[in-house]
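Structure tokens please, single chain.
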Amino acid sequence: MQTGSAPGDEQMMLSAMQAVLGLASGAMVGFSLGLVGGGGSIFAVPLMVYVVGVPEPHVAIGTSAIAVAANAAANLSNHARGGTVMWSCALPFAAAGIAGALAGSALGKMIDGHKLLALFALIMLVIAALMLKTRSRVGLSDVKMNRANTPAIVGLGLATGTLSGFFGIGGGFLIVPALMLATGMSIMNAVSSSLVAVTAFALTTAASYAWSGLVSWGLAALFVAGGIAGGLAGTRSARHLSERRGALNIVFAIVIIAVAIYMLARNVSLS
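Here you go.
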């Protein structure tokens, strides 16, 4: 594990073109978070490496965690104003996952960054298949934490937090289906509520990577700025798609499959 701040500091010297690409990439990340509650880090890391030009995957992972946490918090406020966040389920889910995210991030920094991304791509394909299988399920519109679902909320929160920290991601692609499984809530409520956990997990992971000097703060700021506008557009699109039964599930799954295939193609060849 690296200590000090050298790796991240080197990435702060950005050219004008890199700054523009960082803003545009941040907008894409924000749109994904607003639309499906996930995809932030999965988009941010390859965008940082292959578009902006960050050479070290772990720096890209740490920087993306900062950007995703900020963008997820902004998108959470958008969804909260729409009344679609199930707070009684989202808060304990996120709290349970924070401890897991700390443990997972410590382990993830010991593994090659390209292998981490390839492993996560395989998990994404499994999740996409599950989302397509349940695309016609409407879900419950008003769920709350109770004695029956508490073990599932806490257990799945801990599990997704660990995986989120291990892979260095906010974890929305894991959190959305986990919330649906634990509580039976609709995908729109799960997308909205997932942003509570995405924010918490990404902050936890970011703190761990920042402690090791694996964050480019200048690039993170550009991604956050671009993500604000993208998030507003993504949230509006999510509300529109949620009115059509199964549409948001299908979009969610298609995005996962496309990114997973891309990540496998890039990272398996680099391994």
